[in-house]
C-alpha cells in the first residue's frame, strides 16, 4: 500500500496500521527535506488549504502553517474569534463560504467532538482534524509515534504511559489508538476522577501510582491539566495534584532505568512536570515539535496525492 | 514481452570505463566536482562510476550523493499510481561546485528537470552536466540533452529500456522490452 485508505484524516480510529506506517515513512523523507539549506518543495503548489481554528492553538497552528508553506501550498487562515461565527453563522455555512473560494483541503480545530466527522459528511473538501473537543488529535499522536520510533527505532513492544488528565484529553485517545495499532503497550496514569469511565475497554492498563507507572514504562507522555474544560472540581488543588502526579527530577532519578519524557505542549511548568525535567536530556519535547512539521507535511502530501487533478 | 539485449558484459564494463575517462578529461582530479545520482535507479550508476574513478585515480577524493526528486516531479496529482519517495544523501556542499547529474536512462527529460530543481535546494552550482547510460533519443518532451552518453537507443514510447545491475539483479545488462 502506497496510498492512504481514507480521503480525510479525522481520527486515528479510521487509519490502518499500514496507513500509519506509510505516514511515518513519508515523514522520514520530509524530515530530511526540512533540514536542507532550502527547506521547500513544490509538491502542493496547486493545492489551496484553509486553516480553520475555532479554538486557540499555538503549536498545532504554526506547525500546520509551516508544513503547508514548506510544501508550497496556498493557505488561508481563519480564527473563529475574529470572524462572523460570533455573528451567528453556522459551521456548514462558514465552511461552504470558504470552499466557494476554491479551497481543496481544510485543517480544522473545533471545541466539539465529532465536528470534523460532521463536516466531512456535508462538504466536498478533504478534512484534517487538528483537534476536536476531547475526541481526537490525530496528527499529535502520529508525531508522538514518530518521535518514539526515532528514539528507539521501533514503536512495537515499547511501553508507554500517558499521565494526567485523560478524561479531557484528545491527545490521550489518539495516542492510545495509534500506539496500540503500532504494537506498543499503553498504560494510563492519573487520579480516578480524571479517568474516563470506560477506559479499560480500550485495552490499556490503568495505574493510579505515578512511581509504579514510571517504573513500568520506557516512555512517559505527560499531559496538561485542561482546566478550561473543567465544569466541576476534579481534585482538591493544583498543589495536591502536582505532589501526586507531577514529574520531578527526584522521582526521575530514583527509577532504576532511564525513561524518555514527552509532552504535547503547552507545558504548565511546576504542575505536571518541573522545569528541570522538561529541560533535561531525557526530554524529547522540542524534537516532538520539529517532528510535527515533518509528520504534517507527510499527511497533507499523502492526502493531496490521492485526489488527482484530472 | 520481447526482451532485446542492447548491452551486456564485457561491453557494459567498457562503456562505464569510457564514461569515466571522458569525465576525467573535463574534471581532472574531481577536487571541484561532485557526482549526484538520481533516485531510484541512477544511484547504482553513480556508485559504479565513483568506484571506477577511484580505481583510476586512487589519490582523488570523490564526493558522490543520492538525490530523491519525488517532491519536485511535475506529474504529482496527475498520475494514477502514487509517487513513492526515496532517501536523499548529500553530505557535501554543491555551492560553486561542478555537479554531474547521473541517471540510468534518459527518456522524456522530465526526471532531469525535476532533478535540477531538487538539486538547487542544496545551493547554486557553478556548472551542471548530465551523464546517462542510455539515451533514448528523439523522445524528449523538454529541451534537455546529456553531456556524456553510454549508448544511444532508438525506441518508441510503448517500449521500455531496463538497466540491470550486478548489485541488485545479479548481472550487468541493458535490455529493450517490447510489450506484445
From TrEMBL, chain A:
Protein name: Aspartate carbamoyltransferase
SUPFAM superfamilies in alphabetical order: Aspartate/ornithine carbamoyltransferase
Alphabetical list of PROSITE patterns matching this protein: CARBAMOYLTRANSFERASE
Residues bound to carbamoyl phosphate: 59-60, 109, 137, 140, 265-266
Natural source organism: Solitalea longa
Residue ranges of domain Aspartate/ornithine carbamoyltransferase Asp/Orn-binding in the record: 157-303
Residues covered by the Aspartate/ornithine carbamoyltransferase carbamoyl-P binding domain: 7-150
Binding residue positions for L-aspartate: 87, 170, 224
Keywords: Pyrimidine biosynthesis, Transferase
From TrEMBL, chain B:
Keywords linked to the UniProt accession: Glycosyltransferase, Transferase
Stretches assigned to the Phosphoribosyltransferase domain: 6-167
Domain of life: Bacteria
GO molecular function, one term: glycosyltransferase activity
Pfam family, one: Pribosyltran
Recorded coiled-coil stretches: none
InterPro entries: PRTase-like, PRTase_dom, PyrR_bifunctional
PANTHER family: BIFUNCTIONAL PROTEIN PYRR (PTHR11608)
Name used for this protein in its record: Bifunctional pyr operon transcriptional regulator/uracil phosphoribosyltransferase PyrR
Organism, as annotated: Solitalea longa
Amino acid at each position: 500500500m502506497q496510498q492512504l485508505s481514507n480521503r480525510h484524516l479525522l481520527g486515528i480510529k479510521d487509519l490502518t496500521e499500514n496507513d500509519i506506517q506509510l505516514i511515518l515513512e513519508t515523514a522520514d523523507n520530509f524530515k530530511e527535506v526540512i533540514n536542507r539549506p532550502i527547506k521547500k518543495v513544490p509538491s502542493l503548489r496547486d493545492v489551496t488549504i484553509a486553516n480553520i481554528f475555532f479554538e486557540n492553538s499555538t503549536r498545532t497552528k504554526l506547525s500546520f502553517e509551516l508544513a503547508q508553506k514548506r510544501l508550497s501550498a496556498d493557505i488561508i487562515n481563519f480564527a473563529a474569534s475574529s470572524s462572523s461565527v460570533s455573528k451567528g453563522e453556522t459551521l456548514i455555512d462558514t465552511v461552504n463560504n470558504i470552499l466557494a473560494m476554491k479551497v481543496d483541503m481544510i485543517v480544522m480545530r473545533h471545541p466539539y467532538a465529532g465536528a470534523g466527522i460532521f463536516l466531512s459528511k456535508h462538504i466536498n473538501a478533504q478534512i484534517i482534524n487538528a483537534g476536536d473537543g476531547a475526541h481526537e488529535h490525530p496528527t499529535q499522536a502520529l508525531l508522538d509515534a514518530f518521535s518514539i520510533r526515532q528514539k528507539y527505532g521501533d514503536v512495537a513492544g515499547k511501553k508507554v504511559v500517558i499521565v494526567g488528565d485523560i478524561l479531557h484529553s484528545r491527545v490521550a485517545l489518539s495516542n492510545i489508538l495509534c500506539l496500540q495499532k503500532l504494537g506498543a503497550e499503553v498504560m494510563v496514569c492519573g487520579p480516578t476522577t480524571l479517568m474516563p469511565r470506560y477506559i479499560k475497554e480500550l485495552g490499556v492498563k490503568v495505574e493510579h501510582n505515578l512511581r509504579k507507572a514510571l517504573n513500568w514504562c520506557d516512555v512517559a507522555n505527560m499531559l496538561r491539566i485542561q482546566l478550561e474544560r473543567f465544569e466541576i472540581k476534579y481534585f482538591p488543588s493544583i498543589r495536591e495534584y502536582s505532589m501526586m502526579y507531577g514529574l520531578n527530577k527526584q522521582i526521575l532519578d530514583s527509577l532504576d532505568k532511564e525513561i524518555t519524557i514527552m509532552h504535547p505542549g503547552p507545558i504548565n511548568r511546576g504542575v505536571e512536570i518541573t522545569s528541570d525535567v522538561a529541560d533535561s536530556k531525557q526530554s524529547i519535547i522540542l524534537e516532538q515539535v520539529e517532528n510535527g512539521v515533518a509528520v504534517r507535511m507527510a499527511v497533507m502530501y499523502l492526502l493531496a496525492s490521492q485526489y488527482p487533478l484530472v | 514481452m520481447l526482451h532485446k539485449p542492447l548491452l551486456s558484459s564485457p561491453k557494459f564494463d567498457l562503456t562505464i570505463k569510457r564514461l569515466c575517462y571522458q569525465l576525467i578529461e573535463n574534471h581532472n582530479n574531481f577536487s571541484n566536482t561532485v557526482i549526484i545520482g538520481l533516485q531510484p535507479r541512477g544511484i547504482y550508476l553513480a556508485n559504479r562510476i565513483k568506484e571506477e574513478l577511484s580505481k583510476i585515480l586512487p589519490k582523488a577524493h570523490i564526493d558522490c550523493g543520492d538525490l530523491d526528486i519525488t517532491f519536485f516531479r511535475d506529474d504529482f496529482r496527475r498520475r494514477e499510481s502514487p509517487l513513492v519517495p526515496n532517501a536523499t544523501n548529500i553530505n557535501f556542499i554543491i555551492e560553486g561546485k561542478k555537479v554531474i547529474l547521473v541517471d540510468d536512462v534518459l527518456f522524456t527529460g522530465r526526471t532531469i528537470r525535476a532533478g535540477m530543481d531538487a538539486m538547487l535546494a542544496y545551493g547554486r552550482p557553478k556548472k551542471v552536466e548530465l551523464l546517462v547510460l542510455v539515451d533514448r533519443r528523439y523522445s524528449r518532451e523538454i529541451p534537455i540533452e546529456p553531456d556524456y552518453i553510454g549508448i544511444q537507443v532508438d525506441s518508441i514510447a510503448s517500449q521500455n529500456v531496463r538497466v540491470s545491475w550486478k548489485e541488485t539483479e545479479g548481472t550487468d545488462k541493458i535490455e529493450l522490452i517490447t510489450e506484445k
